[in-house]
Description:
heterodimer; A: 5 strands; elongated; B: alpha/beta
Amino acid sequence: MKKYYVVDEKRKLILTPYEKFIRSVKRCLNTDLISGLAFIINETFKRGNTATIKYPMEKIKLDNRYRAVHRLQRFIESETERCIGCGLCEKICISNCIRMETKLGEDGRKLVSNYSINLGRCIYCGFCAEVCPELAIVHGVEYENAAEQRAYFAHKKDILTPIDDLINQVEFEGSGSLRADADEFVKQTPNYYDVMKEREALIPNSNSSEEKTNKEAKDV
Amino acid sequence: MKININGKECIANEGDYVLQVARANDIFIPAICYLNDCSPTLACRMCMVEVDGKRSYACNTKVKDGMQVLSNTQELWDERNAIMQTYCINHPLQCGVCDKSGECELQNFTHKAKVDTQNHWIKEIDRRHKDWGLLQYDPSLCIVCERCITVCKDKIGDNELKTTARGGDAPDKDFKDTMGKDAYAVWTKFQKSLISPQNDKSLECQECGECVSVCPTGALINKNFQYRSNAWELTRIPASNPHSSDCELLYYDIKQKSIKDNSKMIYRVSNDFHFTTLNKAARFAYDITSDCKGKDTAEFNRLVLLFKENKIKNVKFNSYITNEEAYILELLRAKFGFNLVNNEALCFQEFLKTFCSFAGSFYNASSEDVKKSDFIVIAGSFLRHDNPTLSYKVNNAIVMNKGAGLYFHPIKDTKLSKIAKNFVNVACDYGKEAKVLEFILQYFAKDLPQDLGYIKEAFYEEQIEVEVKSKDAEGNEIKEKQTQTIKKSSLAKELGFDEDKLKDLLLKKSNFTLIVGNDYFYHENAKYLAYLLANIQKSTDFKVMLIPPRTNTLGVSLICKLSKACDGFTMGYNERGDFSFSNDEHNNLASSSLIEQEGTFVNYDTRLVPTNAALSFKGYFLNDLANELGLNAKYTIDYTEQLPKDKGFLNIAFDDLTNYYDNAGNNHRGYLINTCEFVKNLNQELQIPQNQQLACECNKDDVVILANPVGNLSKYTNKSSFFNECASLYASKDYLAKHNLKENSMVKIYDDKDEIIIKVVLDKDIENGAYLPTFDDKINPYKFFKTRRYYALNIKEISHE
């Protein structure tokens, strides 16, 4: 597909008075002017037709890729927090505004006891969401972060999906999220060996085991 | 001798391993399992090199002159890649939450060997976490490099870890053809074994935490640190161990306390484990700072006024203090004329002065000499309890040099005598301290001064029956019993020691070290002991080492003019006094702890080592007081340069001092004190002290000694949440049986004047004795122990009726 045109510097300019006259007559008699005028009048007198929104009662719906104030997601199935406390967001944050507290949880797993983002420093670059291996920290839609003071913190309790609101949690589609066909890129791990062996025992005479395992892997 | 590694000419010593030479010359050869000063285990095989065209392992190949070593060929890296691949089989991908992430050697070498695929698989097995007291062991992260086992055996001496069966499948034989030989061998071993405590359940060690420190992965982890911080968030502050006189190099890893509290906190203590070992106190007693809210001006002004009006007659302090502070106190003493009171340092100082003036030099052994020696005698020290780090060095020497040794102490320390068969515990009686030294002189001295002539004559004759073979007139062999008279040392007999044994112990030994500890410094006969010791240094092959009892006892002894307390107002610096300027809980004015201070210590190797402040202190430093009283220095460390030259200090500024070990293990910490200068300026009268005959006043079964349990060295370590114990009487099993006591029962210990009521606790690692600790401020054992470290105390169980 041709996306650009070479400017023809040698093209002939319309210069004769006759040609100029013909051009202006054509433009005057064309209906474009009238139809344009009609559209404007029509739009002007339409009811409830305004570009101005009544903020804060009305808000614009932002695109998925807009990077607003962060959210901490939960697993929908188990309701547990996705954040494992690896600290990569803290490490990668170029404005140094993320800080987290972790400890040994009662279940023997790493527990993120608190999490904070200094929104006065955050430049909404999205690196934290990009680096998060668990898709736990994502960008939300909350863009109203004017505050009386510069340092304005979001703590874990502010940004973590509340349990009773879990049903409304949507999978993030912005920067850092998985691509739609991500499943196809998952490689079979050595741990899959166990499953594979069990299945092989169940299915006798499996000639094309290679193909089968691949298929089964997808099934799992 | 010269060898060539990767085209670089390196100078090596006879007996060095290739790996050591490479490291000393900054040539990188990967190795996971090898630890400096330990025997090579050859578990990881990563250090494979080509020596003159042949494959061998750098960690256990000794150098030969003109050797050609290659460590970087593609072939070797392919093999290493295969080995690293086997380590990654079924290794959980939990780097995100693993505590070692960021400082994990498995991560590092996986990247270094460029592992990007996994071609092998094996069935997963049950790998549940194991709870070992302070530690947690995660078998799934363990790569069985056996570093923990090696360090525990070769350095620490507890020997508390072993390998055990893992119970995994053997790798498929098909892999043998597709992967390298070494990789397959490593994998097979890795599938077979796992680490476990000697008794399979829990660790019964002194909990020094060195195994955690050396673990290359997150398999062994301290529970108190687990999941609290990532390695990369912590700031490392180099410092020196403030709890004992080894003053080993350690790092405080600090980070902000929490989201709300921005002030710094120590999360853990780490060390350069190839070259230093830390004891339990150094590793765990770091949360000992008191919460000082700010400057208490009123109390401070009161203290200044007390000084200015010359009301203070005594300043009592202890040796947990930096050289700079000691020097400030000394300057103030010169200005205001009060007494500097520090009994423990005074005893040590007098002992040292007597020793130096008779020996004509300072004590001449350092911990480095201990590590090199193959015959070690320890006298007058309850070593593992007094200075755990030195006991590690003794263990290291005896294990690595196939050494032997004698340990003269009435209480048998079973852990110490387990080091080797040739390390003999001689249970000499209390009161026979002088006899030990006299025996050493008798046996080893080349020529003795005249006034010690009686030692030469301390022999007795013994008749023994010997079988003599001879032939009768007909040529038949007959055995005849004859009596022979032989000369035997009466000193050895008094010590209850068979001197014939010594001959076997001394076979092929050439480096001798004598270590002397607390018992002798606090002894009422200390002067005579010091005199004997000086003669040992002068006239035998022994190198002599004194263990300064507290962190900076040596520094204080060098710098301060100490005296006994007189009547009058006492200011206690870090001690209790009429006015306490102290970091204890009961103080008038808060002072900083050693973790909050910059300064220097003098360690037992007579080395001045710097330490940095890990945390900030908001209150008044001693320097603030000094400035108010007419001295002038912006920071305490301005005094480092001014430390007295005639005592052996060099005028080097604090900021010019270095604090590290280089790759070859050379010590670059601070500088060595010029001890000749100190000895030269000693104005000690040379009056040969007399051996005092001590009245043996007691029933020996009742004797209790003054010692702390291993690791809990002082009231400062006990402030830490890891210790925080109540003082008990720690007794051996036979002591309990002798006195008819039950474990954990309350007892009264008393003499004719005083008594203490205390719990009695069993210490499994000792035999034939009991000890009373000093770490608890609430119980004062010093009311019994005045001139010696041991005392016969009556003991009675209190019934609950």
